[in-house]
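Session log. Operator J.P. requested a structure for one protein chain; no other inputs attached. Running the standard single-chain path with token output.
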Amino acid sequence: MSSATSSSGGGSRRALALVAAAVLAGFDAGAIGFVLPAMRGATGADAQTASWLLSVFVAATLVAVPACAFAVRRFGAPRLLQACLALAALAAALAALAPATGAVLAARALQGLAHGPLLPLGAAIVVVHWPVQVQGRLMGVISLGYGLAFLVAMVGTPWLLQFGWRSGFALSAGLALLALTLTPAGQARGAGSPVVAATPTRTWRALWVRPMPAVALLAVGTGIGQAVLLWLPSLAVARLGAAMTETSLLMLPLVAGGLIATGLVIALLDRVGARPLVLGGAALSVAGVLLAAGAPPSPAAFMAGAAALGLGVTGLCGGPLRYAAARALPLGEQGLAQGAVAWLTNLGVLGGSVLLGALAARGQAGTAVAATVQALLTACALMAVAFLAALTLPRHRTASAAT
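Structure written below.
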């Protein structure tokens, strides 16, 4: 697997392109929670219409991820990555220029089709093009790009939106074009190497190979954790009476926790494997929700919870689940393995968002704060149940991913 060594400048550029694609996905995921209320304020759209900006995006990702997972074998992951980045740039530009809400919703659906496969395609490219000894480190670096962009977007978007709600989409279009420019033009056929083509074709039944069922449950729980992260600014406003711009300061510990988590993943994943990092991330995620939503309301408790949640959820998203999936299935099935992790994580985000919205909406005047807290604690309980699957992950082994 000579192409897997990635020792040339082309390999470095490919890695940079994967990080840029992850930054694009992370920025959009972190910014949309602030774009929704900004759009409502500027256009007069009702809450249900605005919420569709998230719903149509996630629904589109649920279609795009499995489609790309099966298409990898025919077209190659690098070529599909280029197509997704081009579509992402077009969709963001359409959203920024759309004259009406309906057109924005259509553009968001296109964004979902484009953004959903970015991270699983990146992970599949890493497994095919780099040796197993450095795959965890590279997955961690890619996730660092995603996590940093996500966290910075959650802190910085309120300031960006001073230029209007369309500014977020304009920046997204620029990031997509940057990532597309960095993608090496000559590598489009790389994932179609003979070692991949020689692997027998499998179906979704391959996902029952151990430890994929455990990874599936953990991915759903991680998605719910991501949905909880998106609700933290709303919790700060409701429970602490913070202004929207003040939430940026309250979320800084979350950024710090995310940075620490991704650094640990980069340093440790290749050495210790997925299991201890997943166990630590799961425990910290649950503890973070309990501190932020369950402890007596105070800025200190909220910030401590945000830090723990940033450590936990970012650590879970930062490569361990993708690493476990990469070890479970052979090279030719990496599109399937990584697609499953992304699809189930997005399913958790969608389910968690719907659950949180439904439970929080039950609160009437005077009980809205209690309803929001109850919603977050319910989501925390579901996360904890899903995270029990971490106990069944195998111990670390250093065998080749091709075996």
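Operator note: The mean pLDDT is 81.
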